[in-house]
Design a protein that fits this description.
Structural class: alpha/beta
Bound molecules: zinc ion
Number of helices: 5
Oligomer: single chain
Strand content: 15-25%
Largest sheet: 4 strands, parallel
Helix content: 25-40%
Shape: elongated
Order of helices and strands: EHEHEEHEHEEH
Length: about 160
């Protein structure tokens, strides 16, 4: 399942990607036309109160991202795969790949390099991710939204 967020939901887009969900961020609702014809059209999360003529359109009430996640938790929960949480670039929506520690030494702060053993990077933008690159508090809200505890060592 794919999800789509409108231009006012940039933060929500990033959080959905952290949860491992394939999430597009669109600036123009005309882009929804692309998805109308497919068998399983993506859910479209939006702050627009006017209908946009799209069937799976979910209106988001809150302006706070954690409240927004709660609003849609019943929709996204069945699609959250604990093995894929924190395995997608927040910026590019691309799945991360394992990278050798020696290859990223120049790309992360020194204390990070010494503290962590496993790293991943985004094949598109090159951004490096490690276990601690997502804050500790994140585990709490992931559990709340996903309904189960994430793998303690996701990377
Ligand atoms: Zn990226």
């Amino acid at each position: 399942m794919k999800f789509i967020c409108d231009v006012m939901l940039g933060k929500l887009t990033q959080y959905l990607r952290i949860l491992g969900l394939d999430t597009e961020y669109i600036r123009d609702v005309k882009m929804l036309e692309t998805y109308k014809e497919i068998d399983e059209p993506p859910y479209f999360f939006t702050k627009r109160s006017k209908m946009v003529g799209y069937e799976r359109c979910i209106f988001i009430k809150s302006d706070k991202v954690k409240e927004q996640l709660k609003e849609i938790s019943h929709i996204i929960r069945p699609f959250i795969d604990s093995g894929k949480v924190m395995n997608r670039c927040m910026i590019c929506n691309i799945e991360l790949i394992d990278v050798a520690k020696a290859d990223i030494e120049q790309l992360v702060p020194e204390f990070v390099f010494h503290k962590y053993e496993e790293f991943k990077n985004c094949p598109s933008c090159g951004r490096v991710y490690w276990e601690g690159s997502h804050t500790e508090h994140m585990a709490e809200w992931i559990e709340e939204i996903a309904g189960h505890t994430p793998d303690p060592n996701p990377l």
